[in-house]
């Protein structure tokens, strides 16, 4: 009998795209939305990631009810990995794919596909990560009337016909470029089958127009097609190392994304190292200190007893100097399984 407690975790979302097409601005906008619309006490900031809680998804989706009446939110939120780009994405490896459950490919709608857009799509294809396209910077279409933070379907109704036509042309260019890359694509509100067609959401990361649909669509897609992948339980944690970092007073630490299970302070972990897997014990699990608690004499982090998937957390432990970004990290369930875990980490490192 399996007595473990299980839950649906936050899907892990990554943002990719060409330089200057607006990845950071979009993440900042999403993070800002999460902070201003959250309930008191809800934590949105993680190490290397930020969470948009379900309560925020509900509020953001509210004005969309008349277009999509049936969206019920069952996930606890969305976890966005904070440092966007290729290099980061390649650190999100997991056997047979990626730790990213879904991606946003950001394309400047005025520029269309650029070299790193093609590269990003190639990487997503190789790792089999589903994605949606954020057709960004719609506010830069000459003559566009901005309606800050409104749904795309509202703001489009307030534009003059020739602006609507111009937008359609620009979207059509993206559809052709996606076709060249091997994907059927369509504006999100015209997609009939999301399993075969990539959805394009026109947005402005600057004004927030279209961001409600972007969040609602991510939510809808993962709930419809990925719920099984999102089920986790209080089993020994699994994660991936995003970054290896020196911290004043703590020495070498690792920033990890836990995508499955639980990790406790004091747990034995195995993590990939330069020459061989490192076996060590978690000295501290560190989360960013909430801004309102900032006091001059305290550090940037608060120590917690345990974290559950999905989470971005900093781990302080002895012997992490040789730890490798991109390597797996496993909590060892019992000492007699240690050799098994070491072998597993070694195999995964070799497959990178
Ligand atoms: P890299 O991290 O260098 O790859 O760039 P990025 O993709 O993170 O782009 P970033 O968010 O830094 O944006 C690049 C520039 O475009 C900045 O000057 C932003 O202010 C601007 N920008 C981003 N999104 C929008 C938008 O929706 N509308 C307008 N008008 N400007 C935008
Ligand atoms: Mg950036």
Question: How would you describe the overall organization of this protein?
Answer:
By secondary structure, the chain is of the alpha+beta class. It is 27% helix and 30% strand. The strands form 5 sheets. Strands 3-4-5-2-8-9-11-10 form an 8-stranded mixed sheet, sandwiched between helices. The model has no long low-confidence stretch (mean pLDDT 93). The chain binds guanosine-5'-triphosphate and magnesium ion (MG). Guanosine-5'-triphosphate binds next to helix 1. This is Probable translation initiation factor IF-2. Keywords: GTP-binding, Initiation factor, Nucleotide-binding, Protein biosynthesis. One of its GO terms (molecular function) is GTP binding. Belongs to the TRAFAC class translation factor GTPase superfamily. Classic translation factor GTPase family. IF-2 subfamily.
Task: Name its key features.
30% strand, binds magnesium ion, 8-stranded mixed beta sheet, 8-stranded antiparallel beta sheet, alpha+beta, 9 helices, GTPase activity, single chain, binds guanosine-5'-triphosphate, 352 residues
């Amino acid at each position: 009998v399996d007595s473990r407690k299980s839950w649906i975790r936050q899907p892990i979302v990554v943002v990719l795209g060409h330089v200057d097409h607006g990845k950071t601005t979009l993440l900042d906008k999403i993070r800002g939305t999460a902070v201003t619309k959250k309930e008191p006490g809800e934590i949105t900031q993680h190490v290397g990631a930020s969470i948009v809680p379900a309560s925020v998804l509900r509020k953001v989706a509210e004005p969309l009810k008349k277009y999509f009446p049936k969206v019920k939110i069952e996930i606890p939120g969305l976890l966005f990995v904070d440092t966007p780009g290729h290099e980061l994405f390649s650190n999100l490896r997991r056997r047979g794919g990626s730790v990213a459950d879904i991606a946003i490919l950001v394309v400047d709608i005025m520029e269309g596909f650029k070299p790193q857009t093609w590269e990003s799509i190639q990487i997503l294809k190789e790792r089999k990560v589903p994605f949606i396209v954020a057709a960004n910077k719609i506010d830069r279409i000459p003559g566009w009337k901005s309606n800050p933070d409104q749904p795309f379907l509202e703001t489009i109704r307030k534009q003059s016909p020739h602006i609507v036509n111009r937008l359609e042309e620009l979207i059509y260019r993206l559809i052709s470029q996606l076709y060249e890359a091997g994907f059927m694509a369509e504006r999100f509100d015209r997609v009939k089958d999301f399993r075969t067609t990539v959805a394009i959401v026109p947005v402005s990361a600057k004004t927030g127009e279209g961001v409600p649909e972007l969040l609602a669509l991510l939510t809808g897609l993962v709930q419809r097609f990925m719920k099984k992948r999102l089920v986790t339980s209080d089993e020994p944690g699994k994660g991936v190392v995003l970054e290896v970092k020196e911290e004043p007073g703590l020495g070498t630490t690792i920033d990890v994304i836990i995508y499955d299970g639980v990790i406790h302070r004091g747990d034995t972990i195995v993590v990939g190292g330069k020459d061989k897997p490192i076996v060590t014990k978690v000295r501290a699990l560190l989360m960013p200190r909430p801004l309102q608690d900032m006091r001059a004499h305290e550090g940037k982090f608060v120590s917690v007893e345990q974290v559950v998937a999905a989470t971005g957390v900093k781990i302080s432990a002895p012997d992490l100097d040789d730890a490798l970004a991109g390597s797996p990290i496993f909590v060892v369930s019992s000492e007699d399984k240690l050799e098994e875990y070491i072998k597993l980490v070694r195999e995964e490192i070799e497959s990178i």
